Amino acid sequence: MSAPAAAPAAFGILDKSPKELRALGDARHLSLNDAEWAAVQAHFKGLKREPTLAEVETIAQTWSEHCKHKTFTSPIRLTEGKKTRVIKNLFEETIVAATAAVKKSWCLSVFEDNAGVVAFGKKWALAFKAETHNHPSALEPYGGAETGVGGVVRDVLGCGLGAKPVLNTDVFCFGRPDYAGPLPEGAHHPSRTLRGVVAGVRDYGNRMGIPTAGGGIWFDDDYRLNPLVFVGTVGIMPQWAVAKDVKSGDLIVAVGGRTGRDGLHGATFSSANLGADAPSSAVQIGHAINEKRVLDALLRARDKKLYRSVTDCGAGGFSSAVGELGASCGARVRLEAAPLKAADLSGWEIWLSESQERMVLAVPPKNLKALEAVFAAEGCELAVIGEFTNTGRLEVTHRDESVVGLDMKFLHKGLPRVERAATWSAPASSKASGGAEKKAPLVLREMVAHLNVCSREWVIRQYDHEVQGGTVIKPLQGVRHDGPGDACVIWPHAATGDMKDYAGFSVAHGLNPDYGRLDPYWMALACVDEALRNLTCVGADPARAALLDNFCWASPEDPRQLGALVRAAEGCRDAGKGYGAPFISGKDSLYNQSKDEKGRELPIPGTLLISALAPVPDARKAVSMDFKGPGDALYLIGRTNDELGGSLYHRLLGRAGGEVPKANPPCALDGFKSLHAAINRGLVLAAHDLSEGGLAVAAAEMGFSGEFGARLDLDELARDPRIYSNETLLFSESPSRILIEVKPEHESAFLRHFGKGAKAACVRRVGQTTANPILKVVGLDGSTVLEESLKELKEAWQKTLPAVLR
Amino acid sequence: MKNPKILILRAAGTNCELETAGAFRAVGGAPELVHIAEIKASKKKLMDYAVLAIPGGFSYGDDVGAGKVLANQIRHTLTDLRQFVRLGRPVIGICNGFQALVKAGILPHSNACDQSASFTFNDSGKFEARWTHLRLNTQSSCLFFKGLPEMIELPIAHGEGKLVLKSPRQLEDLKKNKSIALQYVTEDGKLMGYPHNPNGSIFNIAGLTNPEGNVLGLMPHPERFVEIHQHPNWTRQTYRKQAVGLEMFKNAVTHAS
Q1: Would you say residue A638 lies in a domain?
Q2: A122 and A169: one domain?
Q3: Residue A399, domain CATH
Q4: Within an 8 Å CB–CB cutoff, is residue B126 touching chain A?
Q5: Residue A806: inside a domain, yes or no?
Q6: Which residue from A21, A52, A20, A16 is spatially nearest to A36, judged by alpha carbons?
């Protein structure tokens, strides 16, 4: 823990050189760059005084990459070959532009609040947010993951006037748990990170009574020093509770946990490269039951309309919560009124502590008594710590001593924008190279056992994925409840009291950093495509999908990294527009790189997680991925191309290069919409998306989950006519493809939904299900390419994770 | 009595109260969420209700043992619970509620309400959520089971579900007075080990009742199977089952009406 020195009255910066300021910042983990220091210095020179420590800390927090996303909002000079262009504001020009272009009236709140909000029927709304908690989870996996979940749950509680969390989803990227190479001193082994993170997510979610029913894990050794932990939450609220407002004269009320010395410098620490000197006090301690108390009390107070606005204390603690709520009016805070964990906290520590389970409300004074009664009934602490003003200033005192006296305008708008350089050069050749051929049966067996494909049951069973009674399509599916579902479907009305309303929703994800290694632009399209086809598979409406973007990248100060980030963001823009899917919220986590055992920087592969949310009009019509019976027709939608670049097939063969999968949004969306209509008519027995491992893996999974076999004929695939290889057809990862089981008597009705001509061209009958649980594939020349026991494939698929975690 | 009043007991960390209330409401009960602090403050009285339900969750974080703190509060705050039980009013404790009933000495039944059983960590060492096959004790007089088939399915979700008894003799007593309400079994009704018995509970016990049959404590969650679409296999053509959880709530409400 850093030494809790009493705040000096003044923090001398006025006569310091840039070098001295940098050293000062480094010593306190402030993460301010030279231009930012200069702006701070100039501001206080104008005021003719030195700042206080708390003021500099407040500015550093507010201006941190974590809070301000300055890489995404500052100018970037991008060089592509001989061409150079300047992007003024990457966020506005990509993510926001896509949302503006698709103009969806059901978007109720985008990019403004702690979460994005979409309409869910006429009466309800869904708030959706995903966060990252990478740096804390690297340092302390259990605490980092736990407080990650706690934080994103508070984002949803602090969205609008508060939404009730109804689903948690979690996506992780780790080094392989059986990694046997060297690690630098102080780094956790990936296996320990995985166990700790899973336990943290489990304990927090389970204790709060929120089903953790969606997610995924990606293994790649380049994450061994910088694991990625994405935590997401969906909340439901009445539509009247979407809007919030703060009036001058409202009381600033802190509720929930007490303030302690835990969690100082979280925002600034997560905005820097991770190293051995990372402060241990930056990771907080979670207490799920305290947060459950806040949840119970807050929603009761919301329904009595006792407060006007609410936000959570996340990074920056009170400083960011009060700073945000009071940004347009002003605020006065008396820190001695805050309930503390330890009496000797100094002013700046109270102001900046990131202690968990705290929220801040704006309360009209006349409601205070009623509010106190609601919180007291739940055993949840509450304290009035100040009031909102109309001065446009942030004034903070501690026992009559001024701690902060800042102009809100400078705090929120004073950040200097520094232009950064970025470069991008396309891969020189799309030709695949290296790696010897392997027989298809062997490849398939290796694929199902591969860490990125194998069963996640070991993890999923530890999450209470059915609390609240709404998980009608579960993460594990099939006869024995152990097959890999594409997504869950949540019917939130088991717990809202509207049990006659069968509307549900689904959340799905898309992530594949291996595509990004070849081209981040096409990775972004593939991620959106994957999330949407997963949603479509379970019966969600692909035309009503809302997206979250989560970028995890290495240092943006490296022009190549920044160039790749721009490519990915532009891919998001084109995907959002192409699929007609708005982004409603998002997050970026940069500086995901650390020094390895030899002191070299190890950056993570540029990683984009797309999370998609869409309504399922009638949850009773949802579909699972397991084969339902023998003798049914198997249809494949989508065209298969020679797109093995970044594929699992190439990874297994040790092959580099190749064509990265390239999605065609309008064509893909047509297929998804047609399938959705067919599902709504009850014409589809099972649907499963083709992703890592392509057709072969998808068919195997559907077979062993339903305990029926299949016979596929590769010559029936809609495909690029230049493909002559059975392996390419089996293992290509061309996007937008879904394998579907249809009863023979429903085939013609099913096909009618796909229309005529070009539209119908992407759907083909490629085989049928069989009673014998064997996957048989006939190749282009009529010979049997594959004839594998599904029982054995399932055993191989199930064995991997328990074996490496033993 | 039309729409009998159901007291759904809450404490910090209770988290299955809404779906439990929903289940009672769906079968004509009038559920009310009552925080144990309200009973302590005498704002609400247990005896004003026809049915008591203690839902699942992690009361007080399950710190110092699952349901232990809540059990102590029940002993000292819900002092008329013994009277409530003696009057034959239905009481159901689900998951954390069952753990609390056992640690408060309500189950297994003893005249002095002495705690004679407890729960410990699952043999697997992990919290687990899965659907289980269960066999009801058709010999017991448990009012919640009226009209139900002998073999049912319900989900469990817990980390401390392994029931342990004070002595081997106690098991014989429980058998004799037909207090073993539910057992984890295989699909064809056999007593087997993990994963069929998900936690290693003695004699595969999943639920207990009292000799009179008006108190039921169980680790599985009947409130998560009140609608057939909550079953993991409803999408399969062969699936034809009733939502047995709902029947349990209906039996309680019918009994109280």
Answers
A1: yes
A2: yes
A3: 3.90.650.10
A4: yes
A5: yes
A6: A21
Q: Is residue A674 part of a domain?
A: yes
Sheet holding A546-552: strands in order across?
A471-473, A488-490, A504-510, A607-616, A546-552, A583-589
Global confidence as pTM:
0.95
Q: Are residues A32 and A140 in the same domain?
A: no
Same domain, A707 and A794: yes
Q: For residue B9, give the H/E element and its range.
A: strand B5-10
Largest CA distance in chain B: 53
What are residue A617's DSSP bridge partners? none
Sign of the CA dihedral with B136 first, then B142, B144, and B145 last: positive
- The size of chain A, in residues, is 806
Indicate the number of domains in chain A.
3
**Which residue from B19, B38, B126 is facing A495, i.e. has the nearest CB?**
B19
Which pair of structure tokens corresponds to residue A545? 């999908």
Mutate to test the interface with B, among A195, A461, A538 (most CBs of B within 10 A): A461
Q: How far apart are CA A434 and CA A261, in angstroms?
A: 54
Chain A: nearest CA to B193, how far in angstroms?
17
Q: What is the ipTM of this complex?
A: 0.96
Q: Maximum CA pair distance of chain A?
A: 87
Buried/exposed code over A523-542 (b: 16+ C-beta within 10 A; e: otherwise): bbbbbbbbbbbbbbbbbbbb
- C-alpha closest to that of B205 among B194, B215, B191, B223: B191
How far is A119 from A615, CA to CA, in rounded Å?
9
Treating both helix axes as pointing N-terminal to C-terminal, what angle do A665-680 and A559-579 enclose, rounded to 10 degrees? 50
Which residues 177-216 in chain B show a CB within 8 A of chain A?
A: none
A376 and A274, same domain (yes or no): yes
Shared domain for A27 and A176, answered yes or no, is no
Number of alpha carbons in the 13 Å side-chain half-sphere of residue A77: 7
Residues of chain B positioned with their CB less than 8 A from the CB of A619 = 229
Q: Which residues of A touch B131 (CB under 8 A)?
A: 481
Cα–Cα distance for residue pair B249/B223, rounded to 1 Å:
8
R_g of chain B, CA atoms, integer Å? 17
Provide the residue range defining the domain that includes A635.
Answer: 625-806
Q: Round to whole Å and give the CA distance between A51 and A57.
A: 10
Give the span between the Cα atoms of A424 and A571, in whole angstroms. Answer: 14
* Mean pLDDT value of segment B178-196: 96
Helix A141-157 vs helix A190-208: crossing angle, to nearest 10: 40
Do A780 and A694 lie in a common domain?
yes
Partner residue facing A377 (CB), from B35, B229, B235? B35
Q: Which of A34, A69, A104 is the last residue of a domain?
A: A69
The single residue listed with the structure tokens 């301690």 is A285
CB-CB under 8 Å, B38 with A499: no
Q: What are φ and ψ of residue A203, in 5° steps? A: -65, -40
Residue A101 counted as domain residue: yes
Q: Are A627 and A710 in contact (CB under 8 A)?
A: yes
Residue for token pair 């947010």: A129
Domains within chain B, CATH numbers bracketed: 5-256 (3.40.50.880)
- Residue A119 and residue A54 in one domain: no
Q: What 3-state class would DSSP assign to B186?
A: coil
Domain boundary among A413, A444, A471: A413
A671 phi and psi angles, rounded to 5 deg = -60, -45
What's the CA gap between A548 and A118, in Å, rounded? Answer: 12
Q: Are residues A249 and A359 in the same domain?
A: yes
User: How far out from the chain centre does Cα B151 lie?
Assistant: 17
What's the pLDDT at A269?
59
Mean pLDDT (whole number) for B136-143: 93
State the pLDDT at residue A265. 65
Which residues of chain A have a pLDDT value below 70? 1-9, 265-282, 429, 757-761
Active site residues of A: 66, 133
According to the model, what pLDDT value does residue A431 have? 84
Q: Which residue has the tokens 């710190």?
A: B63
Phi, psi at residue A245, to the nearest 5°? -165, 145
